[in-house]
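Hi V.,

Quick status before I head out on leave. The structure for the redesign project is tokenized and pasted below; the design run finished overnight.
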């Protein structure tokens, strides 16, 4: 589920150790996004953002790559540098100042869709009469793109599974050559989605 709530907090500049802020900051912001780096693509939740930085939470330890980008659901990407992290929370600095209003409103050039991860993993795709070896080439909370040499019909029911993904019932929504768009009968929660991404791409992040 993608939902956002936010308000603009006033600047505060006080002395004697109290917090100072050089940029107005949006708070109470909750929005799913992804961190993209050499270790993979990982689900995160944006919690707080300003023109100079952002704080996020993941569902596992933070990726350790120095080069990391924040990618929104509309595909816009922002280069980041980690400032600090603790457990599943981290603060990052933007490589360049960003237009906070644009980031908050997340302008769309195309129809809005769920957060999607470019993860490739082998699966078994089963119908009532056959079992096929296939590959998932990207996945969201609500569905996946499947590549398979066997032919399935639009609206046909399938079951997919592998060592990372328990048996998942879905329907074929579209077909293009050997590629199929699948819609899950039961959606993944954001936490399930985040943990799946880590298990497939970088399981060491789950050890903390």
């Amino acid at each position: 589920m993608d939902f956002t709530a936010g308000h603009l907090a006033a600047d505060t500049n006080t002395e004697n150790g109290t917090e100072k802020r050089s940029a107005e900051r949006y708070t109470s912001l909750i929005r799913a996004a992804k961190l993209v780096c050499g270790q993979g693509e990982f689900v995160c939740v944006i919690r707080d953002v300003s023109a100079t930085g952002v704080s996020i939470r993941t569902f596992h330890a933070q990726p350790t790559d120095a080069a990391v980008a924040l990618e929104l659901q509309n595909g816009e990407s922002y280069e980041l540098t980690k400032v600090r992290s603790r457990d599943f929370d981290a603060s990052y600095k933007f490589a360049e100042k960003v237009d906070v209003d644009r980031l908050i409103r997340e302008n769309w050039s195309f129809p809005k869709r769920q957060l999607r991860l470019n993860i490739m993993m082998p699966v078994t795709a089963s119908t009532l009469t056959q079992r096929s070896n296939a590959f998932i080439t990207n996945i969201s909370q609500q569905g996946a793109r499947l590549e398979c040499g066997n032919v399935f019909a639009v609206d046909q029911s399938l079951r997919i599974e592998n060592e990372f993904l328990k048996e998942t019932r879905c329907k074929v929504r579209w077909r293009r050559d050997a590629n199929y768009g699948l819609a899950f009968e039961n959606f993944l929660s954001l936490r399930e989605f985040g943990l799946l991404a880590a298990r497939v791409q970088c399981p060491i992040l789950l050890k903390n």
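Above is the designed sequence. The mean pLDDT is 86.

G. will cover questions while I'm gone.

Best,
W.
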